[in-house]
Design a protein that fits this description.
Blueprint: H1 2-16, H2 20-37, H3 41-65, E1 71-75, E2 78-81, H4 82-107, H5 113-127, H6 129-137, H7 142-156
Length: 157
């Protein structure tokens, strides 16, 4: 019961706190809790590298669209601002914190059984991200992405 309530507190803090130091502390707490309670941490970390790659590519878009504030340096016509970097860092920390919390909820079986099937589908989709890149390289239409993912989920379930 204590773990459930502490995860709820971490979740609420992650959503509403804007201070980067607090978000960093929440990340540290999430990592420590995962080391203690998550037996499949290494397996989950291998899945995470693709998501981090995708999210880091959005870093460029966030810097491009946030052109106001203190300019740190300029790359051609794009200004890298302190506000853009802080915006990216806070959203990145929030997403990583939410992923860490979801791993804890999954390994501790906190969700009722009716919701656990949805969780399995989401995990299957995350596992299929590298396969989608292969389909994307072959220059197929977008409907092939969805067909492939849905067929793989149907096979696994």
């Amino acid at each position: 019961m204590l773990l459930k309530s502490s995860l709820l507190i971490l979740f609420v803090l992650n959503l509403f706190v804007k201070n980067m130091t607090v978000l960093g502390v929440l990340l540290f707490i999430g990592v420590v809790l995962n080391i203690i309670f998550n037996k499949e941490l290494l397996k989950h970390l291998k899945k995470l590298k693709f998501l981090i790659f995708i999210y880091l590519t959005t870093f460029l878009a966030q810097i491009y669209y946030h052109q106001e504030g203190e300019v740190l340096f300029k790359i051609y016509s794009i200004y890298v601002t302190k506000g853009g970097i802080l915006n990216f860092a806070s959203s990145f920390l929030r997403i990583i914190n939410l992923i860490l919390l979801s791993w804890l909820v999954n390994t501790q079986n906190i969700l009722p059984k009716s919701l656990s099937s949805y969780q399995r589908v989401i995990e299957d989709v995350i596992e299929l991200i590298p396969e989608v890149f292969k389909i994307f390289k072959s220059k197929r239409k977008i409907k092939w992405f969805f067909r492939y993912i849905l067929s793989q989920i149907k096979i696994k379930n």
